[in-house]
Amino acid sequence: MIDQALDNAIADGKTYGNPDDQHALFTRLRQEDPVHWSEPEGFRPFWTVSKHADIMEIERQQDLFTNAPRSKLFSIEFEDKVRSLMEGNSNLVRGLPQMDGMEHRTYRQITQAWFLPKQIKQLEERITQLAQRTVADLEQRSGETFDFYTELAAWYPLRVIMLILGLPESDEAELLRITNAYFGGSDPEMQKGSDLFQATRDFIRYFDGVSENRRAHPTDDVASVIANSVIDGKPIGHHEASSYYIALAAAGHDTTGGTAASGLLALIQHPDQWRRLQAEPDLIPSAVDEFVRWASPAKHFMRTAKQDYVLRGKNIKRGEALLMAYPSGNRDEDVFDEPFAFRIDRSPNRHLGFGFGAHMCLGMMLAKMELQILFRQLLPRVHRFELAGEPAWVQTSFVGGVKRLPVRVTMRS
After folding, report:
1. Which residue intervals of 140-216 are DSSP H helices?
2. Which of 9, 21, 59, 345 lies at 20 to 30 Å from 110 by C-alpha?
3. How many domains does the chain have?
4. How would you label 341-350 residue by residue, b for 16+ Cβ within 10 Å and e otherwise?
5. DSSP state letters, 304-330
6. Entry pTM
7. Omega of the bond prior to 348 within 30 degrees of 0, cis?
8. Residue 114 domain boundaries
């Protein structure tokens, strides 16, 4: 028997705009029906997979469970509009999350070297300077009420990704505006007069100019690598290049900024953990992993079964889609001791915040470095943070986190 309210909640962005609602929903699914056939109104049906072990079982079998043709959850109305605009193509963008097999490996290798530990280590000094700039901005607000996310946390990782792409600082406000609309989901506050279609067009228009410039005048940055890449003896296609730029420019900073804000909020709400982190800065790496588990900025990705498969006793048929619910996997009682406790020293911490397997987040090491550097700069100079209002989260079922975090800060004298 279909529980329509439950199924609708799985697909409703408003569920994810309230962490209590989100976690209550997935706790129920883990306990009662961890591989749940879901038929939300206005969406094609799919299986909701809420257990950590089942998500990993899917992720590690990339040939059996593929990204194509349905990598994200969209309404039927949205899918029809995409096909109309894209001349039958079901993907508005076609980046790494929409690719499989050898094609995925080939495209991932274009920029993979830029995100390996050796390469990002070379950027550590410049990223540290950006973190120091962020903390200097913070010091100017000492004793004031301000929004930590919109005024600080959103800008720092944006500047890091712009550094890697080689983009001018004068463009940062426009890129942040487009990203907010792109990941705004059903949240009207984040879209602010735009939507995913318009945001995608804005991104493509912007990066067409970047790509043209880098083909004529290549420099030592990731934008030049993408613009001049060759796939199977031919220059990279326009759709694929645009999608690559969009994935790096948008997902490359939105998730990190949201995680920084979520991590700070957790520290404010757990002052014992704040005090311990200040006293034991060597715990920053494990604290960052706990920030990611706690925030789970990527809410889901989808896979499609290429053949019949039995998962936790449920018969998955060939062609059926599965939604992997990462926030649920990251609160799984079978994997995490006291999963609803925030612990900066949690070990082991086998969270799924960066995915798992062949499709693990390309920028994982960069994101961890950014967050570690930021908090290393912040902790010794801040005495305390306190909430100065109600925090708010993006209403989206895909990628999002804290969108408002009003705080007051007291700096050390």
Report:
1. 148, 155-165, 172-182, 188-191, 196-216
2. 59
3. 1
4. ebbbebeebb
5. EESS-EEETTEEEPTT-EEEEEHHHHT
6. 0.95
7. yes
8. 4-395
